[in-house]
């Protein structure tokens, strides 16, 4: 096995969270005057950062060997023919695949074909997860925190993180911080709501509400005629009818003067015409599904807590 010098030092391309599968052969010297186990001269170059980098060339593949931890990383792969690649070891092929971000599973021929003709499925894919601010995990956490009977109030943030796979999608230290922030925000919001309710109750108690307006007819927004009108217009019961005729179809409508009732007819027709019903229905279904998933996870979580407590 022949080694030769690489004429240009290269910076290692660090991949955080991944470990190299290949180790440098023992015997690669750390001094420029030393020789390797196979009688190979090893060149050591000093980078600006003061670290010594060992540059090797093996079977047509450049490697950068780090003296500190003994790891080597494939930098460039010059063999491009089947015969050249077959002359390499499986570890060499895996190093080339790792450098290109390709999967390393399979026999030698599969590795060679993946190097020569990579497909989309051959590239490493990272699992995707929802953004925390719009995730079901966050909604689930808020639901648990707002439930005063939930066991979550007796657990530490670390224990809560371990209690659900939804939470474990996110780094523990970030989840702990997020939980503390949400808990504080809910407590602050609760205090504000309590103060608002108290102020509103005091103001309402000081007011004398009348069942009729200054003009002597009922309040439309609290009257049953408002809901009945919306339903009748939606069903088309006013078709081919003038407002005067439609006015006498229900006793609730007749509690309002025709002039006032006619205005509410036009207002409701405009509302129903301009409202994007299909979009609203779609959003409603999506929200319902979202809430059902959160509710199902909440049920599973509570059952798991009770099961562990019973042991």
UniProtKB/TrEMBL annotation:
Ranges where the record places region Disordered: 1-51
Domain of life: Eukaryota
Biased amino acid composition, Acidic residues: 16-28
A Pfam family per the record: SAP
Name this protein carries in UniProt: SAP domain-containing protein
Positions of the SAP domain: 85-119
InterPro entries given in the database record: SAP_dom, SAP_dom_sf
């Amino acid at each position: 096995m022949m080694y030769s010098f690489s004429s240009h030092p290269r910076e290692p391309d660090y991949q955080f969270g991944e470990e190299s599968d290949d180790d440098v052969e023992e015997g690669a010297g750390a001094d420029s005057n030393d020789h390797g186990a196979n009688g190979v001269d090893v060149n050591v170059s000093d980078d600006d950062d003061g670290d010594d980098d060992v540059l090797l060339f093996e079977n047509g593949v450049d490697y950068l060997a780090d003296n500190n931890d003994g790891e080597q990383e494939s930098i460039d792969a010059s063999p491009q023919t089947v015969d050249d690649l077959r002359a390499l070891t499986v570890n060499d092929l895996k190093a080339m695949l790792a450098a290109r971000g390709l999967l390393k599973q399979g026999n030698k021929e599969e590795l060679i074909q993946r190097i020569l003709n990579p497909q989309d499925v051959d590239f490493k894919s990272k699992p995707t997860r929802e953004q925390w601010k719009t995730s079901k995990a966050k909604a689930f956490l808020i639901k648990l925190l707002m439930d005063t009977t939930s066991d979550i109030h007796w657990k530490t943030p670390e224990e809560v993180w371990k209690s659900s796979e939804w939470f474990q999608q996110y780094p523990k230290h970030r989840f702990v911080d997020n939980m503390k922030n949400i808990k504080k925000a809910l407590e602050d919001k609760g205090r504000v709501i309590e103060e608002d309710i108290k102020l509103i109750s005091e103001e309402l108690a000081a007011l004398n509400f009348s069942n009729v307006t200054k003009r002597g007819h009922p309040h439309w927004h609290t009257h049953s005629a408002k809901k009945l009108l919306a339903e009748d217009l939606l069903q088309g019961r006013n078709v081919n009818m003038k407002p005067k005729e439609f006015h006498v179809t229900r006793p609730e409508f007749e509690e309002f003067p025709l002039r006032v009732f006619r205005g509410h007819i036009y207002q409701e027709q405009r509302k129903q015409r301009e409202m994007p019903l299909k979009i609203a229905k779609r959003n409603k279904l999506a929200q319902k599904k979202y809430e059902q998933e959160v509710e199902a996870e909440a049920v599973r979580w509570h059952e798991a807590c009770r099961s562990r407590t019973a042991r």
